[in-house]
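Running this now, will post back.
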Amino acid sequence: MKARLKLGNIEIIWLNGGSFELDGGAMFGVVPKILWKKKYPCDEDNFIPIAAWPMLIKTPEQNLLIETGLGNKLTDKQKKIFRIKNDWDIISDLRELGIKREDIGTVILTHYDFDHAGGVIMQDEKGELSLTFPNAEHILQAREWADVLSPNLRSENTFWPVNNELLRNSANLKLIEEDYKVQKGVDLFFSGAHNRGHQVVRIESQGEVAYHLGDLLPTHTHFNPLWIMAYDNYPLEVIEQKELFEGKALKENAWFLLYHDPFMPACKFDADGNVTEKVSVEG
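Update: finished.
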């Protein structure tokens, strides 16, 4: 997949971080299937297609990456459990763009669930592990990292040690508190809600704006603040934060960047949640 969006003098390119399937009931929580299936397809077993596509952000200053995909360390059992349909291949995607993994200067993680942080550490042909982007500063909320290192009974199923061990004592890890400016035009805002340390990304260039709400808005069909996932750890906070950030984005006529949506990687909404513009999926 090579969907692209120009935002002033910044270019956003979606990369193949893998795709999989999840139970539709889990992805739409208490929303009845009779409602969500009108907007999102499912198979006879109730599973729906889910993307995990990192976003390459090419700015005049550097190459940034938002999220890292599923990674290439999944066991055969995990591939079966999560019904993997396409394997992680962002290194090849970057190579086609003339970019080496050493050329990524910053990695932004909205949170550290395995489907967002699985590509932080990669496995080579010999089975050896290394940081996928060895020269990149990896930016994460400090409270998220605290939970990664000391997961509870629920989060231990998504914070896998194999995805954090090499980063733990590395100079590449940048822990932040609350809001943070990455560079001109790229800002992070603490949101919590989905996870305790979840954060939102705002990008602006030459008067054009985009928001990546992470798992507060996993697909375009989740725009309604009440349409939340069973995976959300703090559901009432998710509703509150969606209303806040969606409201901000609507006032700025901003693009919404979508990580998990296999049908449209970015779109704009009107106040009623109708898609008014969208980026098409290529290939």
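The chain has one domain: 4-278. More later if anyone needs it.
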